[in-house]
Amino acid sequence: MVSIVPSPASHHRTVSTVRRHSVRSATVLTVDEHSSAGSSVGDLTEAAGCVRPADGFDLDVTQTDLAAPTRLDAASLDLLFAGARTTNTFTPEPVDPDVVHRAYDQLRWAPTSMNIQPLRLTALVSRAARESVVAHLGPRNQAKTLAAPLSVVAAYDPAFHTHLDVLAPHREGLREQLEGQPERRDAMARTNALIQLGYLIVALRAEGLQVGPIGGLDPLGVDAAVHAENGWRTLAVLNLGHAPDPADPTAQRPRAGRLEAAQAVLTR
Ligand SMILES: Cc1cc2nc3c(=O)[nH]c(=O)nc-3n(C[C@H](O)[C@H](O)[C@H](O)COP(=O)(O)O)c2cc1C
């Protein structure tokens, strides 16, 4: 559990503005036994208190809590970073796909360029969906992905601009401009979805999960397997579980070195 340390000098003032908006498309899909191509189960707009466009309003929820804490405590930071490990194999305890929705509900508040939020996720719940994706992973990534309690395909939506009226109302006309610029859209979407992928890994760890990211795959093959209907473009697969498999000495590899801040951070 992530706990927080309140700032001793916090100001107890909350500023809230509420306007209405709408986003029709789900951002997290679950592929289950009944839908090999993916069925929408994640209407995340409801979680944000959003409403449907039918009522004619635009909704946007902004909350700035000036009493917010200034720093996570050491245990919480450890859960997210130094104490967390990449995990290859897991105990068989199932992972409820709802956790992906909960993690997304957190990460969506983290920033992207112009707030474009291009990350899209597909939880592979059925064996058939999992196998269709595993066929396009590198040989060393296949067995562990088949065995993981849950696998999720992380992708970007090159048609993210269709949501810009809601996501970036401050950039009037950008949606129309990007309509004719597919290469620019692709670069924007890819860059920002990769940023969101980092947020996702941390959000899943914050949910108490072990994460094993897989970038060694054929993205076009995975796209053909699970993105044929929505045109999303694969970035990675994330394998999820509750704990490393205690019977597998390679469940987590020995921790490799890290650069020191002095090597990676300059002060000028
Ligand atoms: C985007 C990304 C792609 C990765 N791709 C693979 C992969 O294809 N196969 C694999 O075994 N590990 C993969 N990893 C795992 C990394 O090797 C691992 O996270 C890193 O070495 C740190 O390990 P640690 O968390 O145990 O310190 C990937 C990690 C990330 C973030």
From TrEMBL:
Which residue range or ranges hold the Nitroreductase domain? 85-242
Q: Name one GO molecular function term.
A: 3-hydroxypropionate dehydrogenase (NADP+) activity
What EC number(s) has UniProt assigned to this enzyme? 1.1.1.298
Q: Which InterPro entries match?
A: Nitroreductase (IPR029479), Nitroreductase-like (IPR000415), Nitroreductase_HadB/RutE (IPR050461)
Q: Which UniProt keywords apply?
A: Oxidoreductase
Against Pfam families, the record matches this protein to:
Nitroreductase
Task: Report the superkingdom from the record.
Answer: Bacteria
Fetch the PANTHER family from UniProt: MALONIC SEMIALDEHYDE REDUCTASE RUTE-RELATED (PTHR43543)
**Protein name per the record:** Malonic semialdehyde reductase
Which organism was this protein described from?
Georgenia subflava
